[in-house]
Every structure is written in C-alpha cells, then in structure tokens.
Amino acid sequence: MTASFDRPPRLPSGFRCASVHCGLKPKDPDLALFLADRPGSAAGLFTRNHFPGAPIVQGREQMVSGRLQGVIVNAGISNVATGSRGLADARTMREVAARAVEIDPELMLVGSTGVIGRPLPMDRVEAGIRKLPERLGDDPLEGARGIMTTDRVPKAFSMVVGESRVTVVGKGAGMIAPNLATMLVYFFTDAEVDPKSLDGILRRSAEESFQLLSVDTDTSTSDMVVALASGRAGPVEHGALEEAFRSLSLQMAEAVGRDGEGATKLLRIEVAGAADAVEARRIARAIAESPLVKTMAYGRDPNVGRILMAVGKCVECRVVPERVRAQVQGVEVIREGVRVDFDESRVRELLGRDEVEIQVSLDVGEGEGRAIGCDLTEGYIEENTAYASS
Amino acid sequence: MTASFDRPPRLPSGFRCASVHCGLKPKDPDLALFLADRPGSAAGLFTRNHFPGAPIVQGREQMVSGRLQGVIVNAGISNVATGSRGLADARTMREVAARAVEIDPELMLVGSTGVIGRPLPMDRVEAGIRKLPERLGDDPLEGARGIMTTDRVPKAFSMVVGESRVTVVGKGAGMIAPNLATMLVYFFTDAEVDPKSLDGILRRSAEESFQLLSVDTDTSTSDMVVALASGRAGPVEHGALEEAFRSLSLQMAEAVGRDGEGATKLLRIEVAGAADAVEARRIARAIAESPLVKTMAYGRDPNVGRILMAVGKCVECRVVPERVRAQVQGVEVIREGVRVDFDESRVRELLGRDEVEIQVSLDVGEGEGRAIGCDLTEGYIEENTAYASS
User: Fold this and answer.
1) Are residues A125 and A211 in the same domain?
2) CA–CA separation, A251 and A86 (whole Å)
3) Nearest chain B CA: its distance from A44 CA (Å)
4) Among residues of chain B, what percentage have pLDDT more than 90?
5) Strand (E) positions, chain B?
6) Average per-residue pLDDT in chain B?
7) Domain for residue B108, yes or no?
8) I need a labelling partner for B281 at 20 to 30 A (CA). Which of A300, B98, B117, B159 fits?
C-alpha cells in the first residue's frame, strides 16, 4: 500500500458531521451526527456479547436492508440492560434524528456508548439532536469528539482511493477484547460499492485489525464497526478499496490500543511457527493480555520469563519448550526455551519506547498470528474504580 | 464439617520445619525445609504450563514412587527456563538437603518459586541448606515464611482428624490461574493413608478450591500442590480425612486470593442455573477475572452492568438475557437481564467489606459453579512493574 493518510483527516465528498454537548457527560461533547448527501450501501459487525445494547439490537435489524444514510451516536450512557424502555429510546433517537435531517428513519443508525444499565434522559438527547443539523461541517474530528468516553484523543483517519476517499471515525479505550466488533467504528466513503462487497471488505479488514486488539479482555456490550458507502464518487476498484479499509482499520485499531485506558504503550505481538493460525493467534493474544507481560512493558523491566509463562499457559496449544525463541524490540531474549544472557540495560532502554514489539517463534508448524494490546498501569485502575460515579 | 482449625496452626506429630535467609532475597527468609520422622505416602499436582521449572520436572518423576519424607523449597528464583543447568541445580538441591538430614534423596522433594530465567546461586543455596537441620522446630508458620515471594503474610492452617492432624503450608500471590496446581502448597499429615487414596483426596480437594482461584489469569511455571502422609498416627477414616483436606484447601485458596498482589478484597463468585457445571464455572471465572469487575469491587462502585458484560462475553455459553438475575452482597441488582433500581448507597457501603460476594442465576439449566478471585488495585501494578529489578 503506497497510498498515504490525509493529514489532517477529511470526510469523503458529500459527507458532513457535527457534535454537541447535550448533558450526558459533565461538559464534553456527548452526541454526534454523521450524514451522507444520499442513501448508500451499508455493512456492519456487531458485538457478540450476550447482552447487546438496544442500539445493537436495532442496528442489526436495520442492516438487513444493506442501506444507510446517517449515524447518530451518543456517549456517556450505553443504553444496555435497559429492557423495553431502552429499545423504545433507541427507536426514538433514530426517529428524532431522521426527522431533524429529513431522511427515512430506516436509514439512520443509532450507536450508544458509556455506562451500562442506566436509562437515557431522552429530553436532553432529543434537545441535543435538534441542535446538530445547523452545526454540520466537514471535519471528521469534530464528530469523533462527540463519541469519546474515556478516550484521551479523538480518532479519525482518511485516505484517497482513486476518485473517492475513505474515512474512519472511532472511539474505544476500555472494555475491549476480540469478538467481532470491539468498539464504535464508522467507515464513510463516497465510493460506489454494493452492500455484499462492502460487507466482505469490512469483515476481512476487521479480521486483521480490530479482531487482534485487546485492551483488557472485556468484550463490550455496545460495540459496532459499520461502513457506509454513498456512491457519490462513482465506482472504485475493489482491491484498492479493500487496501484502504485494511490500512485504516489497522491504523484505528492501533490508535485505540495506544489510547487504552491508562496505557502508555502500544504492544504488538507476533507469533510464528505455531501449529496453525488459530493457535498462533491464541498464543499472541495470551501474551498481549497477560497482566504480567503488560506490567513488564509498563515498568520497562526485562523480566522476559513472563513471555515464556504466557506462551506456556496456552495448555491446549502445541508448544515444544526447547524450540521456543523470543525477541523483545528485536533483541533475542529466549533461545531454545531458555533465557539468553542478553544486554539488560539495552532492552530496558528499548522498552522505554512507546511501542513494544514482542516476537515469538515456536518452530512446530507454519501458523502465524498477531495481537495488539497495551500496557497496564495505575491509570487503568484509576479510570475504572469510580466510572459510574464520576 | 464441624471440626475446626487449630489456632495457631500446628504441625502433625513427627513433622518439623525450618527456614533461613540464604541470600536469594534481600533479607527475608528464602529457604525452607519440611521433614517427617519417617517416609510416607505422597501425591502431587503440578502446573500444566508448557514451561515447567526444573523442580516440577524432577518432582513429577519422583512422585511416581508415591513416597516422600521431606520437602526443600526456595523463594526468590524459580529455576525455570534455565535448561540443563537448572535440572542439575534441582538435583543438587535434593541431594544436599537429603544428605543434611540423612535421608534417601529420592524421598526429598524440591520446590522453587520466584523470578523466571535466572540461575540459582548454588553456593548460597547449599550453605543455606546446611544451616536448616539445627533449626528444625514445630511451628508451620516458620516454614511458611521461608517460601513467601510477594505474599504479605505466611500461610499455614491445620486441623485435627481423629488421632491425626492435617497441616497445609502454602504461598501464592500473583501469577495464579486455574490449571491444576496454581501455587506452592504442601499438605502434611501423620495419618496413615495409601498413595492412591491420598492422590484422590488431594485432587478432589484441589478441584473445589485451588482450581477455582484466579488472581491474574496467569498460570505459573512453578506451581505444585503436594501431600505427604507419614502414617505415624495410624489409619484414619478416609471420609473424615478428605473433609479436612477440603476445608484446609478452601481456607488456603481463599487466603491466597485475599493476599493476591495488591488485593484489598476477596471475591467469591457463584453461578447457578447454567447449562452445565462446566459453563457455570466458566462464567464464574469470567466474572472473577474481569478487570472491570475487579476494579468495581476495589472502587466500591455499584457499576453492576459490568457483571452482565462479563457474563455476556462468554459467547460460547448458553445465556438467555431476559432470565439473568444477579446479587451483589445479597442485594438484587439485576433481574430479567435488566438493572434493578436498587439502593446504591447501601451497595456501596456493603462493597466496603473485605469479602465481596456476587451471585448470578442464569435459569437455563442445573449447572452450578464457583470462582475465587480478588480485586485489582494500583498495588498489583506497583508489585509487578519492577519485580526482576527489586
């Protein structure tokens, strides 16, 4: 992929967005609208958690048509575990937003993120929605700001593909683990592409990005990855479009990992030589999710035996200890299953970088797999001890 | 079980133990010896991690005979990922310890716990072992002190069964997750029992205690649960003996959970009405291991939606959201899959206790399962960011 990201990110032609503070969070924007100038193809991946939020239930049904024109999202309250009232509230959000911009409610997707189990104060939400149309503009970061929860930075990236542009806007910081969609992520493009092709492109892109990401092993009840292609810019070569989706997905997944609650570092784990790809990915994830590996990265501590521990705890995977090798930041630290006498001060220094790469080779097969994670710090604890109360 | 624990704990007749500082840790005791006055039946469970330490490899072989008379354990360095040198060191530890107390080396079990991947300074270990025989005494807490790593308190419990006594000595704080043995735990009894019966008693006791315990999802490379029955006090009714093993196992597992790295609270999770016992236990474990549930307990924060999230992330288990109920400290917080309007200040107050109980009912079958865990605090991060260096 030689195409590069726009700096700053831009929305595709015909797309606009806006955000506003409606009172779900103390003062930051907590409501965002994204809108295309015409209905287009749509595809979506939704959380596999057994307790999907009302917007997930509603969105899954809507997605059957393969068509969307807008997305309305609130942050602060997730509308999960709210029963029939929650479903009615999601429907109202959809209808009020659709009416405000004069489109068919079936073309407006709802997303909600935030605390679980509390009802939405619909008067505030409805008042906020009515303020959005007059604020619509062309900065995707403005929309991204309206969907942040514990995110430290708004997240949007875009790139040009032929005559069209693909833009991804997302949020995510905690309660993130692989199992289909793992946060709120929206792709917008003015490219023309049928819903089925868009679905395939989205799924394959998520498979090598969002599905590799774990901040804290916890699978959210609210998460969705949705794509909307308006077609305004005409057809585009599918291979190039998929390349753009893949690049943007990985960029977004890494941005979420980097912004994991309390995180100071992104972790990239690569496992090679596993029995198969499934085992490679499982082992990579075990390393990325191990609290002891995560705190090792945070502490810049070359306590590399923890990597072996994490590989070894995958008891159902094929591992021959004497064949295992590992590198941290490119420095060999384990050979034949035994700690190498490496330069500890050098590795300690390299662990100071804001990206930590761990490579493990098992030498029992051809399976390769990756995982994306972050370190575990006091910040995660602080962030999560009084979330409902704050 | 009406029998009660001895306070303070005592060793069975004919057993003695000692600990000493040999220089693996900065100043605390780091070497312990436990010795019976005669060879006896033995049984053991060992970690399933793919990278077992040298003492695990050696111990598994020894256990085939079903006979032991003593245990020598060091803390500070785990002798894991140390290759052939590590195996030679474990053999030397066994031989030097056996010679010091004049028993057959095949009857001396070695245990090691601590940092992974560093060689044991055998001169210090050997000098330490030679000091142990003259210090042998009858206080099990003295031996327990010599095997502590990040433990805050030494752990030993005992109870009387007929004419005999059963004593358990253990250590564990971090790198603890279910998969056979999950820490160093030694049972000593003067009861007479054959190795096969002892093995069954030990396995069934571990199944309902150590196998339910997860401090941080990480499975240690060093862990063992071993029982040694000298027979000095003669035969004992097996049912009563097993009851004692079960009570002591649960007491020890909860003591380890309570002493989890940085922990301020013990978590007890009970799941009922699951499709089967396997799913019940899996869901209980998902709740006990969820970083968001753990921080909720630490923060005394009635953010109970996180319990639903943790149940819901078990995508492979049967869950019907509308049937799910949950209680926290006996207060109903979830009914029909929806958050109940409960007294938040009351639950906040109850979460201030040092034991947090969460009960979940799924109402889809008869499966019951439990898990034991602890909260997640800044203390865990502090403990694990510079362990190798400290």
Assistant:
1) yes
2) 33
3) 19
4) 65
5) 15-20, 31-46, 67-77, 108-115, 155-161, 164-171, 184-189, 224-229, 266-274, 325-328, 331-335, 338-339, 355-361, 367-374
6) 89
7) yes
8) B159
Tell me the CATH number at B364. 3.10.20.340
Q: Provide the domain count of chain A.
A: 2
Q: Is the pLDDT of residue A176 over 60?
A: no
Mean pLDDT of B147-168: 90
Name the domain boundary from A226, A241, A258: A258
Which DSSP symbol is given to A226?
E
B390 within some domain: no
Tell me what pLDDT residue B174 has: 65
Distance CA B160, CA B167 (A): 9
Cβ of B290 within 8 Å of Cβ of A81? The answer is no
Residue A38 distance to chain B (closest CA, Å): 36
Let me know whether A185 and A217 are in one domain.
yes
R_g of chain B computed on alpha carbons: 21
In this predicted structure, the answer to whether residue A179 has a pLDDT above a threshold of 60 is: no
**Cβ–Cβ below 8 Å for A291 and B380:** yes
What is the percent of chain B where pLDDT is above 70? 94
Mutation site, B116, B289, B345, interface A, largest A CB count within 10 A: B116
Q: What's the pTM? A: 0.80
Domain interval for residue A224: 15-258
The shortest CB-CB distance from A309 to any of B175, B304, B324 is to B175
The answer for residues whose C-beta is within 8 angstroms of residue A324's C-beta and 6 or more apart is A308, A311, A334, A336, A337, A360, A361, A362, A363, B51
Residues 6+ apart with CB under 8 A from B61: none
Q: Do residue B90 and residue B145 come from a single domain?
A: yes
C-alpha torsion angle, residues B245, B250, B253, B259 (rounded to 10): -120
| Angstroms from B16 CA to nearest CA on chain A | 33
Do B172 and B255 form a contact (C-beta atoms < 8 A)? no
